[in-house]
Design brief:
By secondary structure, the protein is of the alpha/beta class. It has 14 helices and 15 strands.
Length: 393
Amino acid sequence: MTAPQTRSELAAARRLVIKVGSSCLTDTAGHLAPDRLGALVNGLAGRLAAGREVVLVSSGAQAAGMGPLGLPTWPRTLAEAQAAASVGQGLLMAEYTRAFGSHGRTVGQVLLTSRDIVRRSTYGNAERALVTLLERGVVPVINENDAVATDEIRFGDNDRLAAFVAHLVRADGLVLLTDVDGLRTAPPTRPGSVRIAEVVDSEDLEGISVSARGSAVGTGGMATKVHAAGLATSSGIPVLLTSVNRLAEALDPSIGEEEAAQHGTFFHVTGERLTGKRMWLGYAAAPRGRLLVDPGAAEAVTSGKRSLLPVGVVGVEGEFTPGDVVEVVDPTGMIVARGITGYSSADLAKVKGLSLAAIQDRLGPRQALEAIHRDELTPHARSRRPKPHDGSR
């Protein structure tokens, strides 16, 4: 499958993941605004009527719960956030059920934590559930399971979650909706700030300042969106970052590229589309340790796409067992790959720097294994992340 190369191709794509933030769904007091949510759904109804598929990653549960709980400001503790999410998620889904129902569409709620992604078995379960919903004509509405999530199992922001979901459902593209008109060279309130129409590679992000914190009713900002765009594009999924108020124009496949370029920022694909396993290995799985390798080994696993052999390992960090995911780190300290190790940390520390023949002589044929077999290894994207600043989401 060839990824969309232009805005028009993305707009016409069969399956899109669309992420909307809390600031797009709430009023000035931070409460859920049904009219804003309804306008979003109305903007998506045309795509659905044309036979295209939408997966909606929606924030807003905590904001929806603030009013009923009498919280004057954004929750300050994890317990308050969980309580607000517990109350608000039902209200949020009720509004989506009503809004999509007016267009004859059924919605299905899917709540995830990072634990559902970092474990290979639950990653597959989430993938199958979402694809089945789409095959049945249901619109999945996805959110982080904030009512039970702890700091240890949180995604942290729904932009990152949306990038993973785009891979789970093998989406043609990812659309990140916000309350500004796209990625800008500086905060919109700063004089001289201009919108960036497209990002071809990481060099286009040099010198760009983005927000480390979003609005008062959100957990992300422009920094999280740029990072999510990097996750998606480095593994084959293009991204459009645009204002929720310009959703209809941004996703209209009938307008020309010149007019389409007036809306949002288009992030071009920078890497090959990954299989589900390689996506899980490269970005989702929680590493248990690190293998420090020499320059030749780093080149072999990145450019050569070869197995990592013990002879190329110069150091072992952490405690792990065979079958655990580990990071591969080059002499500069850069993570160049992730993979499933064939050794425990204790055994690999004993055989690092040795050839397979030497390991066989010392430990026997069964112990002469690759440190990471090439089928269990994926190179890591070397994305550059812009410097954060305080600004508008």
